Amino acid sequence: MNREEKNRANTTSSTAQERSDLNEINHLLRQAMPPVPPDQLEPHTDLWPQLRARIESEHNTVHAATNIRRESPGIRIAWFDWALAALAAAALIFFPGIIPALLYHF
Amino acid sequence: MDLQQRFVAGDLEAFEQLFRDYQRQVYAWIVRIVRDSATAEDLTVETFWRIYRSRTLFRPDGNFGAWSRRIATNIALDHLRKSRRETELPNDLLAPPEPDPAVSREMRARIRSAFVNLPPKYRLVATLALIEDAPYEEIAAAAGITVALVKVRVFRATRMLRKQLRTLSAEIGAQS
Fold first, then answer.
1. C-alpha–C-alpha distance, residues B166 and B6, integer Å
2. Which chain A residues contact residue B127 at CB under 8 A?
3. Could you tell me which chain B residue has the CA closest to the CA of A17?
């Protein structure tokens, strides 16, 4: 038998070995983990309500985030606070004598 | 406007119709990979959620079934990667319909243990090709790889399983 014939014989025997390995592993795997039976290839419940709830919850989150962004372009200050600030500023302008007293208390 | 065009435009009713048309197919594909019905249901919802979010990327004249299967495969693969540390497979699909008396219960447990230790990408193709008998072309399309690569992964998975089973047999032989 020349070298080429030997190589060919080796290749054939290793391919046969690989095929036999594959068949054996295939058989063992199917014994340990059989294919999923056809009656278990369908979900047990209707999954649409779950999916729809998820979509709606995401929509609500996006809407809420958009509304917050629209409502608060900066810091929102109530009119009463503006009025108090105006009164304080007027008091300081018209009665500057209270400034040292305020500084003393702070 | 047809159903897929309406879906891409964000029509929820069109999406519901597509969901009802394809949910069985997607679920069946996922449950064959993860082999647990509760997990498969969760991953099916996750798949359609991702489909809905990325609807603008879908071509209205495209194959919705193939696209959804591709997304489902990626999600199932992610799940296998995350749950790799869980060494036990779920129980609901473990009993063979016709058990071979030559394969003992202990042997089955060892095979399952060797199987869960496979790297996830090999486990994915091994499950689909060797257990579920899915055609290589189908696996390749779903996993986004070539048929040649599917064959390589099946071959490598077989070799890894054989090696692990030999090691386990040797360990048990040494103990007894």
1. 56
2. 33
3. B159
Residues B76 and B9 in one domain: yes
pLDDT of residue B107: 79
Q: Which residue of B has its CA nearest to A31?
A: B96
Q: How many domains does chain B have?
A: 2
Q: Is A31 on the interface with B (CB under 8 A)?
A: yes
**Whole domain around residue B110: which residue ranges?**
95-175
User: A66 or B67: which carries more pLDDT confidence?
Assistant: B67
How does pLDDT run across B118-157, given as a tens digit for each residue?
Answer: 999 999 999 999 999 999 999 999 999 999 999 999 999 9
Write the CATH number for B72. 1.10.1740.10
Q: Output the 3-class SS for A63-99.
A: HHHHHHHHHCCCCCCCHHHHHHHHHHHHHHHHCCCHH
CA–CA distance, A70 with A76 (Å, rounded to integer): 12
- As a whole number of angstroms, the distance between CA A4 and CA A1 comes to 8
Q: Which of B52, B84, B116 is the last residue of a domain?
A: B84
User: How far is residue A75's CA from residue A34's CA, in Å, rounded to a whole number?
Assistant: 63
Do B79 and B9 fall within a single domain? yes
**What residues of chain A lie within 8 A of the CB of B159, using their CB?**
21
B56 CB-contact burial (10 Å; exposed 0-12 / middle 13-18 / buried 19+): exposed
**Is the same domain home to B79 and B149?**
no
ipTM comes to 0.78
Residue appearing with tokens 């919705």: B64
Looking at residue B32, what is its pLDDT?
A: 94
